Amino acid sequence: MRALRGETNPWLTLGAALVYLVSPFDLLPDLLPGLGFADDLIIVPTLLYMAFKGFRRKQAEKQNRDGQGDGREPVDAEFEVVE
Questions:
Q1: What pLDDT is stored for residue 32 in this prediction?
Q2: 9 CB contacts (<8 Å, ≥6 apart)?
Q3: By the 8 A CB rule, do 54 and 23 touch?
Q4: pLDDT for residue 70
Q5: 70-80 burial, b for 16+ CB within 10 Å, e for fewer?
Q6: Residue 41: what pLDDT?
Q7: Which of 4, 12, 24, 54 has the most neighbouring CB atoms within 10 Å?
Q8: CA 66 to chain centre
Q9: How far apart are CA 55 and CA 42, in angstroms?
Q10: Where are the domains of the chain?
């Protein structure tokens, strides 16, 4: 669950996205028409989003630690639907 909240090392996540993109092994083989590239179009942007979210979090933490930030912590909230 830490990975979904962006608490992993962003460099590691970015590296994983690049390795998955150039790797000949996929969840769905690229030889399947239409489906082969679908996993690339979902997994790689998701990993890139997670990496850049981690970079933003680290930058905010650094600014707050150095006294350059506005004192607010980045918010990472979870919501629950109540019926």
A1: 75
A2: 54
A3: no
A4: 59
A5: eeeeeeeeeee
A6: 84
A7: 54
A8: 25
A9: 20
A10: 10-66
At 34, is the secondary structure helix, strand, or coil?
coil
Alpha helices by DSSP H, listed for 1-83, are: 10-22, 38-66
pTM above 0.70, yes or no: no
Q: Answer for the pair 26, 40: CB distance below 8 angstroms, yes or no.
A: yes
- The span from the CA of 63 to the CA of 5, in Å, is 20
pLDDT tens over the chain, length 83 residues: 555 555 678 889 888 888 888 887 777 777 777 777 787 888 888 888 888 888 888 888 887 777 665 556 656 667 777 87
Residue listed under structure tokens 């996540």: 13
